[in-house]
Design a protein that fits this description.
Keywords: Signal
Number of helices: 1
Helix content: under 10%
CATH class: Mainly Beta
Protein name: Copper chaperone PCu(A)C
Radius of gyration: 15 Å
Shape: globular
Pfam families: PCuAC
Distance between the termini: 41 Å
Order of helices and strands: HEEEEEEEEEEE
Structural class: mainly beta
Number of domains: 1
InterPro entries: LpqE-like, Lxx211020-like, PCuAC_sf
Strand content: over 45%
Length: about 150
Amino acid sequence: MKTVLLCAALCAPGCVMAQDLRISDACIRAPMPGAPVVSGYLTITNPGPVADRLTGGRADFAEVMQIHGMTMEGEVMRMRQRVDGLPVPAGATVTLQPGGDHLMFTGLNFAPKSGDTVQVTLTFDRAGPVTLPMPVCAGGPAGRVQ
């Protein structure tokens, strides 16, 4: 009972806790008709004393989930897979957002629609697999049109 109350006190609705990690603001951007990929966004907070690393994950609606980052090369923004994963430093918050680090789902088995909620399992070095509901938003995080 204390664990549930503590989790409820630390984590708002739509938030998932695993080990020292708090995952919130999760959202899948609704794909354009016929699009072969869809992106996902969320916030990972690590208030604990030990770093972790997001190394991958999976979702039923896609064959592959990768972690991608965006970098500027001259005046061109390039997207690259983060093959070594995404560090989540101790005492820090990492935000996956449009134009920055994000989840990329490819080989869609079906196209999630705005208003749906899909289950996604993230894999961390320390926290292990963490399954969370991710609502599908018309424009990305907080339903904003990007």
